[in-house]
Design brief:
The protein has helices spanning about 15-20, 35-40, 50-60, 65-80, 85-95; strands spanning about 5-10, 25-30, 115. It is mainly alpha-helical. The protein has one domain. This is Mutator family transposase.
């Protein structure tokens, strides 16, 4: 492979850095499927639809600046009742939720976006 435009990782430690080393111009994103699943596992079954509705704006935020605001709204709404649902997102994003501005509305790959400075 000569050109990799986007690398979607599952949260495996070291993979984003390795991808940026091998393909310096690649956009590295953390897949949102794993944090979504983990959040749903930690929530009461009857709350899952409500949680999904509030997480959707986080995952589909049009800019990297909008995602933390949407996550704060989600955290305010559910952090007290189900604090464990916040952990998967904080772990995936290092306490800094971001959206992929290059793919607004994309499902499954918008949690983290970085670009190597090389």
């Amino acid at each position: 492979m000569n050109v990799v435009l986007v690398l979607v990782c599952d949260g495996l430690e070291g993979l984003p850095g390795a991808g940026e080393t091998v393909w310096p111009r690649t956009i590295v994103q953390t897949c949102v499927v794993h944090p979504l699943r983990n959040s749903f596992r930690r929530a009461a079954r009857q709350d899952r639809d409500k949680i999904a509705r509030l997480l959707e704006p986080v995952c589909t935020a049009p800019t990297e600046e909008d995602a933390p605001e949407r996550f704060a709204e989600f955290a305010d709404a559910w952090g007290r009742k189900h604090p464990a649902v916040l952990k998967p997102w904080e772990n995936a994003w290092g306490n800094s939720p971001r959206s992929s501005a290059s793919t607004p509305g994309s499902a499954g790959s918008s949690a983290r976006r970085t670009r190597s400075s090389r």
